[in-house]
Specification:
By secondary structure, this protein is α/β, with parallel strands linked by helices. About 40% of the residues lie in helices and about 25% in strands. The relative contact order is 0.10.
Length: about 220
């Protein structure tokens, strides 16, 4: 599960990332709305944690615009504002939930689980791209109906790319997703090796396209 944290407080960012990653989530961060906008072009997130007041604008207004553009993923808005009218404003802007600062990590994680459960009931557990089917629940991949045996890392990499289909992902982004040993990331060719193995196992090398000088992409069309 991929969570974007939009908050201008580095200390809070650090604390949230630590708590969420220990709970098994993959986190990304943005310190302002401009960075959040750029992040939303890079990934398809499962959830956004959005602060109300940011250096370059209002999180509520930003969310209202996202919803008007058709963005449907769950958003948890948090703020130090405690008035009922302000909570109503947050929910009316399209927030799925509102959490008042300061909040406990236990409550935050419970709210996140609830939002993700709600969203999971509204989306398919199968990603279908051409002849390929990825069953996220069973962690099973088939091509033309034939089951493909993948390692855990290969499945994680394929799922990540499929969830972000039509988005060109750099080798660094892909490596960051599957490898937490950041000291060896620059010299590692592990992504190219996994892509080579995936193409061979899938039997359809055209499913994963190389973008020369950048990285890889799975295209729907």
């Amino acid at each position: 599960m991929y969570i974007l944290i939009v908050d201008d407080n580095p200390s809070l960012q650090f604390g949230l990332k630590k708590v969420l990653e220990e709970a098994g989530y993959t986190t990304f961060d943005a310190l302002n709305l401009k960075e959040a906008e750029a992040r939303l072009q890079e990934y398809n997130y499962d959830l956004i944690l959005l602060d109300w007041m940011l250096p370059d604008g209002s999180g509520v207004e930003f969310l209202d615009r996202l919803r008007s553009e058709g963005y449907t993923k769950p958003v948890l808005l948090f703020s130090s504002k405690s008035e009922v009218s302000e909570k109503v404003e947050a929910l009316d802007s399209g927030a799925d939930d509102y959490l008042e600062k300061p909040f406990s990590n236990v409550e935050l994680l419970a709210r996140i689980r609830a939002l993700l459960r709600r969203d999971a009931t509204q989306k398919q557990s199968i990603i279908a791209i051409g002849p390929m089917r990825i069953d996220l629940t069973r962690r099973l991949v088939t091509v033309d109906g034939e089951e493909i045996a993948l390692s855990a890392r290969e499945f994680d990499l394929l799922e990540f790319m499929a969830r972000n289909s039509d988005v060109v992902l750099t080798r660094y982004q892909l490596l960051e997703h599957i490898n937490r040993d950041f000291d060896t990331m620059a010299a590692s060719n592990i992504v190219d090796a996994h892509i080579k193995n995936l193409r061979k196992k899938l039997g359809r090398p055209e499913l994963i396209a190389t973008v020369r000088g950048v990285g890889y992409v799975i295209r729907k069309g």
